[in-house]
Amino acid sequence: MNASEDSLAPEVRSILDAARERPGGDERVAVAARSFPDAVAEAEAEGRVPVVAEVKPTSPTTAGERTDDPVELAREMVAGGATALSVLTEPEHFGGSTENLRRIREAVDVPVLRKDFLVTESQLDAVAADLVLVIARFVGDDLSDLVSAARERGFQPLVEVHDRAELERALDAGAEIIGVNNRDLAKLEVDLETFESVAPHVPDDVTLLAESGVTTTADARRMRAAGADALLIGTAIMDGDARANTERFTQATAETETSE
Fold this sequence. Notes:
The chain is of the alpha/beta class.
C-alpha cells in the first residue's frame, strides 16, 4: 500500500482491495458508444438540467437497499428526463453487476456509464457501456494508459478527480469528460466547495460533471452556477420515487424556486 492509499478511508481501501481481485473479461470488447456530450447538449437545448441518474442498489455511505428491478428503475429515471444513467457494477459493496448494466443498456436509449473501480485494462472487457469511470486516485501512474485503453475499445472515459493535482493529471492524460467528486475518499466527507474550487481550472472544451453531494434542487443550481455541465446524482434519486426525483432535478433551473 502506498502513502496515497494509506490515507484512504477504510471503507474505500476495502473497495480498492476487492477491485484488485476481480478478473477482467474473456474477450476484448468493442463499443459503439452513444455520445454523452451530444446528450448533454440535447438536454440543454430542451431546457433540462443534464442529470446522470445512478442505479445504485446500496453503498457503504447509505442505509438500506433497493430491491426493485434495476431495469424498471432505469426506465423510470429516463422517463423523468435523465440525460444518462450511471450503473454500479461493483458487487461486494454496492450490490451491482455487469448483468444489470447489460440489461439496462438494452432497455434504454440514453448513454450508460459503467461505474466501478477499475484498476487494470482487462477489467474494461467485462461489459460494454457508453462511458466508463476511471478514478485518478485509484489508478495512479496508469491513468494515461487506462484512458487510452478505454478509448481504443470505443468507451468514453469519465475521469474522476478530487483536487487540482488530479485535474492536471487527467488533462495530461487527454481526458475530455471529467467528474469532480465532492466526496473526500480519505474521510468520506462531502463538501460542495470541492467542485467550486476545481471547476474554474477546467478548460471550456471539457464536459464537466459534479459528483456526490447533490441532495436538493438548491445544490443542483449551485453546482450548475459553478460550471457543471451535468450532475451525477445517486442517493437523492434512488431514495424514493425514482421518476419524480429525477424530474425534480432535471427541472432545477436557476430560475426555478422549487420547494425542498
